[in-house]
Amino acid sequence: MPKAYRLFAITRLLLKAAEIFVALIVILFGLALGALFVASTNLYGNHLGIPAMLPHGIARTDAMKIGYLVVIGVLLSFTLIFFAVRAVAAIVQTAISGDPFVNDNARRLTRIGALLVALVAIELATNMAVNGTMKRLADAHHVPVSAIGGFTFGPDLSPIGLFAILLIFVLAQIFRRGSEMRAELEGTV
Amino acid sequence: MAIMVKLDDLLYARRMTLTDLADKVGITLANLSVLKTGKAKVIRFSTLEAICDALQCQPGDLLAFEKG
């Protein structure tokens, strides 16, 4: 097997591992969402020994709202990551079978770019929603936000990350052109 | 299709088969078949030269333009 192909095979293995890992996180946070729902009901919440009133007089149901936002944010994020990882794995698979310059790969790259844009949007939205809810809770109970706890979710909007997303869209266009050239070459006699 | 490939007529006039031509010009039968059926998108000058040489004709004998 040529060296490049061995590298692709290793990459495929790593992507498979990543896919399983991300899928487990999705399942875990799906369970967490269910657990949160159970705990937030009055019946089970009392039964589990979570006081209806938390410190600073914050109601359990209000605190649970923050939990819901975090869990839903993580669940959505990792669902997107799962599909992005699968798309990368599919691209690597075409490279292993020796024909990566196909229009499908251009479409997959565009999809990966769109998934990453959505990921950034979800992370920003979750961040804003959680911090907003905390601020409202803190203001309503006349305590500083730090008493409830600061919160950051996911990586911040980094210039490098945005640059990488842009690069993916550029690569998608290049792959599209490449697949066109490839098709033309096939009609050459 | 605006550009017609008249390979069929030329071969018929010379009582040749596509296989004969493939042997003579050193182009695969599959590629010649692509050319004959009008599915080719690009034709190399070297291919054109080899076919003209084998069939003793001009490029204009092989290709024709039809307004469609």
Key terms:
A: 189 residues; mainly alpha; two-stranded antiparallel ribbon; 2% strand; B: 68 residues; 2 strands; globular
Characterise this structure:
- The complex is a heterodimer of chains A (189) and B (68).
- In chain A, a hairpin with a 3-residue loop joins β1 (53-54) and β2.
- Chain A has helices spanning 3-40, 42-47, 60-96, 103-140, 145-148, 159-186; strands at 53-54, 58-59.
- Chain A contains 6 helices and 2 strands; from the N terminus they run ααββαααα.
- The longest helix of chain A has 38 residues, at 3-40.
- In chain A, α3 runs antiparallel to α4 (103-140).
- Chain A is mainly alpha-helical.
- With 68 residues, chain B is mainly α.
- Chain B contains 5 helices and 2 strands, in the order βαααααβ.
- Chain B has helices at 7-13, 18-25, 29-36, 45-55, 59-62; strands spanning 3-5, 63-65.
- Chain B has a two-stranded antiparallel sheet with strand order 1-2.
- Classes of the chains: A mainly alpha (189), B mainly alpha (68).
- The A-B interface holds A 184-185, 187-189 and B 27, 31-32, 34-35, 39-44, 47.
List the helices and strands and how they pair.
The complex is a heterodimer of chains A (189) and B (68).
Chain A: H1 3-40, H2 42-47, E1 53-54, E2 58-59, H3 60-96, H4 103-140, H5 145-148, H6 159-186
Antiparallel strand pairs in A: 1-2
Helix pairs in contact in A: 1-3, 3-4, 4-6
Chain B: E1 3-5, H1 7-13, H2 18-25, H3 29-36, H4 45-55, H5 59-62, E2 63-65
Antiparallel strand pairs in B: 1-2
Could you give a short description of this structure?
The complex is a heterodimer of chains A (189) and B (68). With 189 residues, chain A is mostly helical.
Q: What integer value in Å does the Rg of chain B equal?
A: 11 Å
Total strands of chain B: 2
Q: What's the N-to-C terminus distance of chain A?
A: 31 Å
- The helix fraction of chain B, in percent, is 55-70%
Radius of gyration of chain A: 23 Å
pLDDT < 50 runs, ≥5 residues of chain A: none
Please trace the helix and strand order of chain A, writing H or E for each element. Answer: HHEEHHHH
Strand fraction of chain B equals 5-15%
Oligomeric assembly: heterodimer
Label the structural class of chain B. mainly alpha
Mean pLDDT, all residues of chain B: 90
| Biggest sheet descriptor of chain B | 2 strands, antiparallel
The coarse overall form of chain A would be: elongated
Count of helical stretches of chain A: 6
Spatial strand sequence of the major β-sheet of chain B: 1-2
Largest interface: A-B, 5 and 12 residues
Total number of beta strands of chain A:
2
- Residues in helix, % of chain A: over 70%
DSSP summary: helix tally of chain B: 5
